[in-house]
Amino acid sequence: MIGSISLSAPDFTFHNGYCRALRVCILALLILLGGCANLSDITGAHFTDLFSGDEDEVEIDEAELAELQTLAPIKLLWQVKLSESKTAVFLPVYDNGALYAADEDGRLIKLDPATGREIWRVDTKSQLSGGVGTGGGMILLGTYKGEVLAFDEAGNALWQSQVPSEILSPPQTDNGIVVVRTGDSRLYGLNAADGKQIWSYQGVTPPLTVRSFVGVSITRGAIFAGFPGGKLIALDLFTGNVGWEATVSQPHGVTELERMTDISSLPIVDENQVCAVAYRGRAACFEISNGNQIWARDASSSAGMVMDNSHVYISEEHGTVAAYDKSSGAAVWKRGKLGSRKLSALMVARGTRLIVGDDQGYVTLISRQDGSLLSRAPTDGSAISSRAEYLPDGFVVQTHKGGLFAFSLQ
């Protein structure tokens, strides 16, 4: 049944609008062991990372690394150490003049964003798997046991709620509703005052999916979420009713492995359109009011995309960053040779720059105008899987080893 979504300022109404033999053997074994549920992530990376040595994988040569070493360094402001993350991906968040970060061992900390000085620390006594989300004076976390934990800005516990399965992304809140996405791609709307469940949504899930740490995007009373099978869904924030459903990418191929085309990154939204990109699929933009397609083009990304006033930028597979015209999808520029074949999500920085991290622990600044490399800095050598986060004087990233590194953009 199709519901409706009313958005304020302005108002909108939503409506319906082979692989090699070894791979097949591994896939069959995993399905026999796990049934038709979402496959567990054995190594802590995406399921597809189990299959290394793809025919189209390109080695990083010495000339590429030598060129990167000539880039100007990015100034480090401060660094803080949390615990190593075995499987979870955490995103530090700047909100209301403070920086919040968490780790898998259950620590939540509040920091001075200018100096990295710790203001307070809370031991949640839980194994955290999703965070940090903020909004409405709350700091929100998720656990492997499906617990949603809410704290105030002083670190006091507000409430705890329970959903049926693990939470792999930061809970989000807007207009008195906390939206939680679980590892099986279900969505839950909770009352922000007490954590009680208001609504739930479950879409159709293919037999085989990528283990994803993606959450949801919320704007003006609507939730936008990408799902396995290449679907983009718009839901009403207050009721969970579906406003429209659009197809970003259609599954292709014979085996379930070949047919994986999951949206494993956040949709991006502006005043007029919402865009998403699928792993092994396409990138596409749709009218925000009704889900009608504006443009689509072949692209593949598990990290995701960002946009500015003119362009959409995608962290594509095999270490490539590409820019496309936001209104037409026309290619503008493409840049590889970033020293890694697995990039993080991008961040649009002040001026004309993009920030990207990689699985070698480097952060790189790229020109939004032509894709040229501007500057680069190391962290602790471990992967940066989540996007950089804004700070008043620069940006901060969190590594898999638990390092928080703040850099200047001056």
Automatic annotation (TrEMBL):
The chain crosses the membrane at residues 21-40. Residues 105-334 form the Pyrrolo-quinoline quinone repeat domain. It is found in: Cell outer membrane. It holds the Pfam family PQQ_2. InterPro entries: BamB (IPR017687), PQQ_b-propeller_rpt (IPR018391), PQQ_rpt_dom (IPR002372), Quinoprotein_ADH-like_sf (IPR011047), WD40/YVTN_repeat-like_dom_sf (IPR015943). Keywords: Cell outer membrane, Membrane, Signal, Transmembrane, Transmembrane helix. GO terms for cellular component: cell outer membrane. One of its GO terms (biological process) is Gram-negative-bacterium-type cell outer membrane assembly. PANTHER family: CELL SURFACE PROTEIN, OUTER MEMBRANE PROTEIN ASSEMBLY FACTOR BAMB. Part of the Bam complex. Belongs to the BamB family. Part of the outer membrane protein assembly complex, which is involved in assembly and insertion of beta-barrel proteins into the outer membrane. HAMAP family: OM_assembly_BamB. This is Outer membrane protein assembly factor BamB. It comes from Nitrosomonas europaea (strain ATCC 19718 / CIP 103999 / KCTC 2705 / NBRC 14298).
